[in-house]
Every structure is written in structure tokens, then in C-alpha cells.
């Protein structure tokens, strides 16, 4: 069974559209994240969601909104997509603090905005 | 502020030889964790090894070892007996302990090419 699964793996869409990426983890972790990997492979955190607490990276445009129906799911909604949103988006989860906070990543979603 | 530096954009190594991927970091946190992740061409991110800042011994995981030099603020990854499947991007990362992964930062990565 996949520990952290995200769908879709590839997403091609037009500018201005709204899209969502889904993420689910079956590890029982309380904390989930969304990361963005740009074309230069640089990884940057976008959001962290720990149970009901959302921590937002202030550099992320408010067109991006995470939604967590329960602690096993953290979906990413993107409104009014722009060319610059093209990237690979990774969902991740981690065990409780104090145990190394190793990240378990999903396989990534390649988003291409045309 | 925290910072991770990987100065080698690309590295080549002959199959079966050892290779060291460099990572230096900067932090004012007294306690932190250091990580290495592998990203093969298929795109997934794979955890390789972890080192706690107060661990006395260098971490090892199979063919991977982490050469931790706290005074120099370096956490180099050593891969012994390289295999063709080791060709990938490698990312060094750091996180202050007991803060949750939200404060994890990543280096720019090193692309490793293993030659047959």
C-alpha cells in the first residue's frame, strides 16, 4: 500500500482555470504538507497542516488554498491558474515532532499551465 | 536564519566507487536534524538518512553514511560502491527538532551520474 498518495500525477490545464490536487496518507501522521518544486528542482514548503492548525507560507499567493477534511487528507486547490504555477507539487506527511521529522513524500503532481 | 548549501550542481562517479556529496548548513537552533533525500528521474522523493545534531556517531544506512562535522557545519553524504541506480538528484535538508516539518529547508540539490 502506498503510504502517501496524490492524484493526479500529471495535470495539464489552461491559464485561468481552477484545479485541485488530492493527497491521502495512511501512516497515521498528524502533520501533512504541500511542497512546490520549481523547474530548477528547488523545493519550497507551501503549507503545513497539523490536525486543525494550518500554517501558511506567506509567500504563497492566496489563489492556493489547502483543504483538509480529516487528518489523513490534505487537498490543494488552485484558483485562476497562471503560467508561473507550472511546477511539481509534492504532498508529504511526517510523524510527531521530536522523532526526526522525516518527511514521507507522495509521488508528485506535474502541473503544466498553458 | 537557516540555510542549506550544496555547492556541487553535478557529480560523476564510476560504478562501484565511493562518492561524497557535500552539504553545509547554517542555523542558530541548538538542536536540529539533518536529512538526505534522493529523487530519481521518476520524480519521487525518497528518504535516505537522518542525523541528529546531538548524535555522537555518524549515521549509516546500508551503503549510505553521513559524515557529520558539527564544528564545520557540514553533513556530507557518502555513497559507497556506487550503482547505476544511484543516478539521481540528491537533496540535503535540515529541520530544527521539535518544531514539526514545517521548518524543514532543502538545499538546491546535486545531480549524481554513475558511469558504467
Q: If you had to describe this structure to a student in words, what would you say it looks like?
A:
The complex is a heterodimer of chains A (114) and B (116). Chain A is mainly β. Chain A is built from no helices and eleven strands. Chain A is globular. In chain B, strands 2, 5, 6, 10, 11 and 12 form a six-stranded mixed β-sheet that branches. A four-stranded antiparallel β-sheet of chain B has the order 3-9-8-7, with no helix packed on it. With 116 residues, chain B is an all-beta fold. Helices cover 0% and strands 52% of the residues of chain B. Chain A binds chain B through residues 31, 33, 40-45, 48, 50, 55, 88, 90, 92, 94, 97-98, 100-108, 110, and chain B through 33, 35, 37, 39, 42-47, 50, 52, 89, 91, 93, 95, 97-102, 104, 106, 108-109.
Assembly context of the chains: heterodimer
Helix percent band of chain B = under 10%
Distance separating the two termini of chain A: 34 Å
What structural class do helix, strand and pairing data of chain B support? mainly beta
Topology as H/E string of chain A? EEEEEEEEEEE
The largest pleated sheet of chain A is described as: 7 strands, mixed
The largest chain-to-chain contact, stated as pair and per-chain residue counts, equals: A-B, 27 and 26 residues
The outline of chain A comes out as globular
Count of helix runs of chain B: 0
Number of strand elements of chain A: 11
Q: Can you summarize the main beta sheet of chain B?
A: 6 strands, mixed
State the total count of DSSP E strands of chain B.
12
| Mean pLDDT over all positions of chain B | 94
| Ends distance of chain B | 41 Å
Radius of gyration of chain B, rounded? 14 Å
Whole-angstrom Rg of chain A? 13 Å
Give a brief description.
The complex is a heterodimer of chains A (114) and B (116). Chain A is mainly beta and 114 residues long.
SSE topology sketch:
The complex is a heterodimer of chains A (114) and B (116).
Chain A: E1 4-7, E2 10-13, E3 19-25, E4 31-37, E5 43-50, E6 53-56, E7 64-70, E8 73-78, E9 87-94, E10 104-105, E11 109-113
Parallel strand pairs in A: 2-11
Antiparallel strand pairs in A: 1-3, 3-8, 4-5, 4-9, 5-6, 7-8, 9-10, 9-11
Chain B: E1 3-5, E2 10-14, E3 19-21, E4 24-26, E5 32-39, E6 46-52, E7 60-61, E8 64-69, E9 74-79, E10 88-96, E11 105-106, E12 110-115
Parallel strand pairs in B: 2-12
Antiparallel strand pairs in B: 1-4, 3-9, 5-6, 5-10, 7-8, 8-9, 10-11, 10-12
